[in-house]
Amino acid sequence: MSKYIALIDCDSFFCSCERKLNPELNNKPLCVVSSERGCVIARSKEAKAMGIKMGDPLFKAVEEHPTCIYMVANHFNYLSISKQIMYILKDLSPNVEIYSIDEAFVDVTGLVKLYNRNYFQLGKYIQNKIWNEVGMPVSIGISRSKTLAKLASDRAKTTKDRVILLGKKKSYRYLQDVDISEIWGIGGRLTIRLHGFGIRTAAQFVKMPDNLLKKNFGINGLTTKYELLGNYVIPIVNNPPPPKSICDTQSFSEFTSDYDYLKNELQVHIHSACRRLRQAGCKCNKIGVIVKTKDFKCYFLDAELEHPTDFELDISKVAFKLLSYMYAPDILYRSIGILLEDFIQVENQQLNLFEDQTKKEKSEKLGRAIDKLEERFGRNIVQVGFTNKEVPNKQGFMTAPKLVY
Ligand SMILES: [Mg+2]
User: Fold this and answer.
1) Which residues neighbour ligand 1 (ion) by CB within 5 Å?
2) Quick check: pTM over 0.85?
């Protein structure tokens, strides 16, 4: 029996959460921002229509669009609303994969009989149930593989029903007007590479011969092809929700301008954050470095990584560069921290077709080995090699950088 997979994706999740808690915000332009000095991390469709972009700094957005409402993110509330939705989904099917705070894959195979509806009607039923019980608008894609369900749900967002069923007959024809970059796991760089093979649409992609795909894009290229052809290849994995971001920061015991000390402290935070990332079974695509000065000025700089990673040496390389851009020798600093963002779960990483596999495996082994050593001998037993300069504290004692949990 072929599988039917639904991807349930909340619409403008953070904004919808704020509206659920405060219905006066309905139909008004609304942005959720990361902090009072942060940037836009979610937009309602009214705010999108105004031209506000994701990542716009708050001060810039307010200056250009003063009539929009800006709310500081309350992740605790969002998580509790997410849990209510996931609870409903787990009640529907035993096979649910929570993909992010606002998205889940659900195996709905056979539920049509139980609910006496066809698969499209089943999608509408789930959508209405979540709206009635939680007050959250969702878009749903249903098809025979996770890759097709993801495509259907992305496209459902712009339809009136906000539910798309890609059945057996429909899916191939559907792929003809799907740009290759729309496919789950095919990012910008892979799109460019596929353009080199003359591949622009998903329909052209699935026509590529197996041996050509395997030779150039490995087993993951083949997996994506067969998923797009409606085969259930990437299984649903029952799992707890991954965190949306990990932040690790702490104030220094005294103000300092010492660059090596800042680097040392940053490394300690990266170490701790990576450990939490690995525990959550995630890799991050984006990192940011935060520094606070003696007079409470906060500077933040972020960068996208070349490949998703949970390995601290990869992260520190980029983080140190970010720090070097922000550092000024005549400023006294009070704290430093690292922010890891834009996670993927490790089991979904198979879709990244570009990474140097040997290097990746080596990094993963080393990361796991460090975790094991620490479990056995205590934290900070392994230090990453660079200047481990010690600084005197207020009493004149020498102190090693502290590890923050
Ligand atoms: Mg969403």
Assistant:
1) 9-10, 13, 102
2) no
